[in-house]
Amino acid sequence: MNTGMPLSRVNGEAGGQLSVTDRGLLFGDGVFETLAVRDARPCLWARHMARLQAGCHRLGIAPVDEARLRTEVDELLQAAPAAAQSVLKIIVTRGTGTRGYRPDPGAVPTRIVQLHDWADRDSGETGIKATLCSLRLGNNPQLAGIKHLNRLEQVMARSEWDDPGIREGLLLDQAGRVIEGTMSNLFLVKDGLLTTPDLARCGVAGIMRDVVLELAGRQAIDTRVSDVGLDALFQADELFVCNSLIGIWPVVALNSNRYPPGAVTSGLQSRLQDYDDDHHTWRA
Amino acid sequence: MNTGMPLSRVNGEAGGQLSVTDRGLLFGDGVFETLAVRDARPCLWARHMARLQAGCHRLGIAPVDEARLRTEVDELLQAAPAAAQSVLKIIVTRGTGTRGYRPDPGAVPTRIVQLHDWADRDSGETGIKATLCSLRLGNNPQLAGIKHLNRLEQVMARSEWDDPGIREGLLLDQAGRVIEGTMSNLFLVKDGLLTTPDLARCGVAGIMRDVVLELAGRQAIDTRVSDVGLDALFQADELFVCNSLIGIWPVVALNSNRYPPGAVTSGLQSRLQDYDDDHHTWRA
Questions:
Q1: Counts of helices then strands in chain A (DSSP H, E)
Q2: Is B183 an interface residue toward A (CB < 8 Å)?
Q3: What is the mean pLDDT of chain B?
């Protein structure tokens, strides 16, 4: 259950207030990360930090002081009531600025950390229903892959359905290529080949997508990152979506299409827990 | 000169602080308007309000209480030191929300008003130099035309040049069509025909663009809204950009191309001041 206001810090200060001159608000000029927290530990921290820094670099935002950010996160976690699981959101914006799009080269990035309740994210592990969204993602290679704060497309896509039985919506791009879910990346399996859409033109390159690709490599599953058409989606043997919070959710229904539970998906699901987050390796 | 922090109100409250759970920050989930203020009066108010409401409607954001917003703006203007000209920025977001893209149907929009110094916006009236940006706008008909808060493309495009002698950058879309400037709309004149790019796929439909189109109609200038290619841009007789703050700026140089001052542009420029903002008509 969501109890409303999350616990938060802005540049280390307790409280949930931000300057209205912050470019995160004015232009969506920043990046974010969403991490699972288990037993008061943010999971896949190093991977999330690497993506955060890469996103900042591509947008020309000054690098984040990771040690300081981690201290702020730890303080936030210590201040929170004990919970087996929670959700950590980290936002880094370009900082405050004068009016106008031009970034100030001297801008000091704003760090925002928020701790949210876990809510109901576990029930999809046995399989979910998904829908195909009518909104199509715009292509922009310069922004593709980055988990930036310009997320109106996801908001509009997520507005397309109300049915709580549908847990995710899948998105095509303007050319009709299958790209991702509104909050997840997508994989499909056909004749033993694991494919996930190429994100060179649009989409968010998820941390769990990387983990799944790495795991598939270790399991010697044939894997391909390529353009995916709608036909391939409907003809797949198995389909799943993934992100840092949900892990892997098999998709068992997409509109009127049905996908039986599959061995590749369940094999990846069962191996996910073997990732050793402390040593960035896989347990045997 | 920009003196830094603007005067601001958030939902009528003095001060420049916003909740970090506001969807304007989280997703760029909102719209904005930038108005010229002359002699303590926001110019083209009715037109800006119409666009603001239209943008909210398209995004599924609840309508804005215009009377209340105007009261907040007037309070802001009364609190400000007297200035012949200033810049009013109005932001409306979907409001605060729980984590996740799905909009809460009961969300109460956040109103933010900011008053900025005028800065140096007048010097372009005799003609400016512009550059062609390498960033290309992504196409998304569902968001096209709306002045929403997802503005990373403009930020990245505006980062492409440092030369203070260059006052605007022109943007193409992914297909190579000419669309707009980073902060302005674009018009070109060829053999007496006035053309501005179609914004059905991307771009911001500016208030001054509408005013110019209306004025051109009244002056019986042949006018067309259509796709514009790069060739047409370079072969134009006259070129100008416009927005609510600058009015019309002739473009006299674009990369190595030169455009002599033209009669259509100067005719429109001189007639702009004849718009009667009180009665939404043109003085004879």
A1: 7, 18
A2: yes
A3: 94
